[in-house]
Amino acid sequence: MKLDVTTYMNQFLGQSLVNQYSNRKEEVFQLLDQSYMNGWLDPDLSYLEDIYKVRDEVIGHSKCLVVVGIGGSFLGAKAFYEMFTPYFKKDHFPIIFAGTTLSSSYMKELLDYLKGVDFSVHVISKSGTTRETSLTYQAIKEVLEEKYSKEELVKHIIITTDPVKGALREEVNREGYYSFSIPDNIGGRYSLLTAAHLFVLSFCLDIEEVIQGYFSGLKLRKEAFSYAVCRRVMFDEGKVVENFISYENNWYYYLEWLKQLFGESEGKEGKGILPISMIHTRDLHSLGQFIQEGNKIVFETFFKIHNMPSCVVDGKNLHEVNLIVEESVIDAHVQGGVPCIVVELDDFSPRSLGELSSFYFLVACFSGFLFDINPFDQPGVEVYKKEVQSRLD
Ligand code: PA5
After folding, report:
1. Domains in the chain, CATH or no CATH each
2. pLDDT of res. 90
3. To test the ligand 1 pocket, which listed residue (78, 126, 186) has its Cβ within 8 A of the most ligand atoms?
4. Which of the listed residues 22, 94, 199, 279 has the most CB atoms within 10 Å of its CB?
5. Given this model, what pLDDT does residue 324 score?
């Protein structure tokens, strides 16, 4: 992975601000190292063998896996699943992601569909109290209970939750379901290297590759700090929106994952950069106009992948065309007063994306610390949850 925070950025960065924030490097590193919520820096992976064992059992008796979770308990797995399963030739073990909507038409269709197939469910909720997750799980469990005997049922329910507390952990202890843990010192959106995501991904890709990449990304502290400084200066310069851009359609959920990581980590106390995303070239024909000539509140981060499968169209390598378009857009946006960061990947593999993901965990933390906020909580999310609770419970 290569980060360029200078070529298309320097002309927009005030040097005194860069110096001011760069001087906080040691303080920011210490804040991360001393935080209780830094378990993702050195995650326990002793459960990997169990992941493979349970996965093989599920493949043996089920035709699909339904994953129920929302926010940080959903997006990591969904992002990697979308990136590393084929667009059209769906010959992998089917995974359905549910629990992110309370739409009754969606739920009705899902339940009707599940009545006709052998399936297992993986419920992911660290707190065990998230309403979308618990309602969806309850509905799906009723389908399972109608289908299977009590002895069979235990083989079809897998729960990933807090290691000791919460309603789901109590259920595991009571019913003897398969279970994994999200450690107390790893927050939902930092839980990529826990069973919450790795169990799901073990069905469709080589999770050891993700793990290797993840650990190499953690070594990029210096680069992550430069990125965080750049973001912090951008904010002071009035660039309060970061637009994450990919030229690959199957990055849609990865960009959603990034938005959730930054949105929940940084958006508090009236501070933070609003993360948005675009897929090019599609969105050049919609929001592209605004970026080029509209209100100058945006800076951008472009993902550039060097090696992609070859496809020749009209005598030209299509990926080369895609890269030329990307470079042209960067130049055009810089001319339009939009600062750009470029993140380059050699290839598009679970390893590269594992590396990119832990790198972004570092960026999100360092950015949060430079805003003097806690990047590990999300008190604002609780506000709507309490409003719902007061009306429904
Ligand atoms: O990143 C986070 O911490 C949140 O997005 C949570 O993952 C999300 O709210 C779901 O919470 P839980 O896993 O407790 O159901």
Report:
1. 2-36+212-380 (3.40.50.10490), 45-182 (3.40.50.10490)
2. 85
3. 126
4. 199
5. 98
